[in-house]
Structure prediction request, 1207 residues.
Amino acid sequence: MTKCVKALVLSGYGLNCDRETAFAFEQAGAEASRVHINALVSDGNILDRFHIMAFVGGFSWGDDHGAGVIQAHKMRTGLGEHLVRFVERGGLVIGICNGFQTLVNLGLLPGIDKDYTSRSVALIDNDCGNFRDDWVHLAVDSSSPGEGKFFCNDGVLDSIRENRQVVMRYADRDGNPAKGRFPENPNGSLDDIAGICDSTGRVFGLMHM
Amino acid sequence: MPYRLEIALKPGLRDARGEKIKKRAVDYLSAPLEGVRVVQVMTIDAKLSEHQLRQVAGIFTNPVTQVSSYEPLPVEFDWSIWVGFRPGVKDNPGDTAMEAITDTLGRKFAPGEGVYTSCRYCFIGKGLTREMAAQIARELLANDTIEQWRIFSKSDWDEKEGIGFIVPKVRLEHEPTVSVITVESNDALLEVSAMRNLALNPKDVPVIREYFMRDSVRSERSAVGLSDPTDIELEYISQARSDHCNHNTFGGVFYYTDMSTGEKMTINNLFATCIKDPTLALKEAKPWVVSVLWDNAGVAGFDEEHCYVITGETHNSPSNMEAYGGAMTGIVGVYRDPMGTGKGARLVMGGYGFCTGRRDYAGNLKPRLHPRRLLDGVIEGVKDGGNKSGIPTTFGQVFFDDSYMGKCLVFVTAIGIMPRLVNGEPAHEKTTRPGDLIVMCGGRVGKDGIHGVTASSEVYSEHTPAGHVQIGDPYTQKKMHDFLLCARDEGLIQFITDNGGGGLSSSVGESAFHAGGCEVWLDKVPLKYEGLDQWEIWVSESQERMTVAVAPENIDRFMELSAMHAVESTVIGKYTDSGKLHILYRGKTCAYIDLEFMESDFPQWEFEAQWIPPGRRGLVEPVLGGSPDFNVLLCDLLERPNICSREWIARQYDHEVQGGSVVKPLVGVSRDMPSDASVTRPVLSSQRGIAFAQAVIPSYSRIDTYHMTTCVIDEAVRRLVAVGAPPDMIGGVDNFCWPNIQYDPKTNPDGKYKAAQLVRSCLALRDACNAYGIPLLSGKDSMYVDGHLAGRYGETRKVSGLPTLQFSTTSVIDNVFESVTMDAKFEGDLVYLVGKTGDELGGSEYYELLGFVGLNVPQVRFDEFLSCYRALHRAIRQGLVASAHGVYRGGLGVHLAMVAMGGELGMDIDLSVSVQDSDLSDEALLFSESTGRLIVTVAPENSDAFESVCGDIPFARIGAVTGKGGNLVIAGNSGRPLVDIGVDTLKRTWKKPFGDLV
Prediction:
């Protein structure tokens, strides 16, 4: 059987979840390739060969200027239009943890009204002030890096909710909303938000696990 | 004119980093603070246009959450403290900022231009004084060895000028020079050694002099322009001969006398006798042992295609000086060992062990850092080092004892995985060949970490050079790790080793032995800044560097891969067969030593060891009576720092990354109980797992280090058995941390006793490993766990740490689905106790609570225990066991509570039916720490099968698991309940002491 779904998993520059993310794609039936950020940036056309692009967890560029900031910058300056074109032609993008931060910094998320370049939401330092590794319960609509607290202003939050872009929320054991309680909502995210997508549902970002 | 960009969170947004600093300032220093906010500062020393400056601000400012300005931001404060790097310290954020700016502007930074990052902390607190602000800067915000700071009061502050422009550029107006050192007399050389901090052993000095005065040597040297030894040569010898690198203590001769019987024995070389010989013999019997005793880490079989690699290190001296940096460098450093084993391994997990004074110590001694701050720093260092390396920290332990205030212990352990074959060749083998190029990869060399090796071979004093602390950089190392694995898989690596202690001197020096010589071009070594002397380049311990041998035909591809991974690699020399360590600087020879010389007959170290048995030292069993309230006693034990929950530490460590976690560090229905061991799948496509555990029980050293050692090893074995690991495939790693054992009537009057403690511990290690069949895959010793602390009256007192052995164990589980955890699973399950309880309260937690040491230290009966472990393993493999948990510190009372708390279920226990020695008191029944015991729960339908698998091992069915919200009820030999208390109360009590920490 030839596998037809091809997934690109970014690696390098301090990213560290590339192997298990690639493995997960393989388990789900895709053919996954780990691609170094520099290899992709040096030839953006590589993206044409893939259906899915994964921005994985880790500490890209050591998180030195905020999680995912430099990675987003590198993608923006190095890949330019390739990335937006990938999304517009129907490619799927998932960002996990540091990758979620990158998508938000790129503006691919929340991508309200298909604006894939404006930064309108942020993931900031956890309220508990520390990294915390724990399992959380998520309620799917309809866990845990040092910077994972979802934040934006009220207007943006309203749009994200109205467009049904909130995909996952922190919940308690029984699936009820965490209502901001620690440790069920481990980072103090607004409205218990753990994961959002863009308005098409093709770009998805999720905090750890 | 430089530019200064200040970036801060928008007003009104919670500043989590500021809040954390506030909490520490209030907790540690009782600072009167209302708020702290952090301003990031970026100083750009380059000429940019207005437009370019706006672009730069745009890169680093998040429009949603941050504000920024090239003028000082008007963040309110009573005191503002600026903290930035000292000149020459690696500024990673500054480097990545330059990279991002270059990408954006398409403009390269010219030599001399740069970007420097720093922080300005804004403190609100009306009562805050300048002295207090200075203390906060010195003790909480800045690390004096690498950072500088300035303090501004509200009235000092110039709203236009702000902090001014601080550009920490290094200017060393120094021409690198090689000095020649006279060897005219032993005394003269020793004097130089003291002056230059070489820490040469007086006994080595005549051997060194003889070499440099030998006619044949002198004539060869004169041919290359050398006469007396150069500083770089003596640095090389000093480094290679240090106790840290050469293990002179373990290689020494011990004259051991038992002072009660008068019996004498001489042990020539503890390492050979107790570690090497037994392990080599076991290697013969156990084909899964692949490579031991010579490389940076041991190698053992994992499956048909893979081997795992393990080693353990300590980083005590640096962590004691600077807790955060020392511990971080420790964990990041030990991760380079598997990378430098064979042709290189991929890191898959790590472990930690911390021994410090009690967190709430309130006595008279004044250590450099109070144990609470030291521990916080150490925890954070391992967190940042481990998490940012992308390696799960799957297991760890903490042990509090005030004897560690002299010097704390920081153990770090690393496990990697490698394919059995790389490019058709065994991956665990490596060698250098004449003609191979010497390549240095990773970070650059600076003055940081010079003389770390020799300093750690000394007792801590006020003269210890502070510069020997390095700061780890996991980001740079992670990039290097990923790069080296690609290079390995392409077959580009002949040999690889890390640059840790001793720097190039050690890595190049040792690797040159394989080829039979080397030629090093020291001026090619990339430096952080100019001005280092040649010897400094040679011995600098700047971190995140590996030394790699690459065949000339592969060098282009190696460099290409390196560039793709954004890793700096430089050819700094070549291996030869000249027999010489030959170092040149700009074409001029500055070192020329026969490699053979390092293998010449240096005098062995010698130690008098006098053992005084515990009874002769006046230790007795306390006389106890009455009828204690066991409910209160158990709760008080559960609250003790060495028993209570330390969840806050484990939570900070990423144990899930890489996706292979099976049995996690925290288990149970609420994921809050410490697991007996961890189980991890290093190869995701395989169902095999590595079980890993560690143990320390230094309290028993107060009675007899022989039994301390056997009990530690037994505990580390039993922990693996509890999760379902096979007891016949266990590998061990020994990490000894001992006070100085060299007798001196004034400075170390009990040195002979401490030496005897070490001998007994090593003999016990040999006996236990032989009996249990444990090859020592790796190990290290760290001597000199002593410190001189200021006391109440201005006096100083020597404080020696308890003799400590950390023993780590690994085993391979065929099918991780068979592993079990420690928590009681279901109401109605039966509770069994495997093993026998004796009157062994000596050194126990219970005696410690009452203020006694006692005499009857637990003893290990290897054969009996091993048959228990094998039986239990069979039962686990057959799926008969619902939970298994060893009985460790605190005895049955504490560990029955653990099992119940894990499942949040009651248990009804009758200990009168347990296997026990006659005439046991209820105290001994509940709190004796007799080893070899495990608590097992079994579903009723499996009980017959379980009992028949157990056969004739000592075991008994002692009760049953009761319901949710139930009590832990324990009846003693009289049949009356000694303990009857709600499991929720137990858990609350156990979690209370450190429950507020995050």
Summary: Residues 69-79 of chain A form the longest helix (11 residues). The helical segments of chain A are 18-27, 37-42, 69-79, 81-88, 98-106, 154-162. Residues 83 and 201 of chain A are 16 Å apart (CA to CA). Chain A touches chain B through 51 residues (CB under 8 Å).
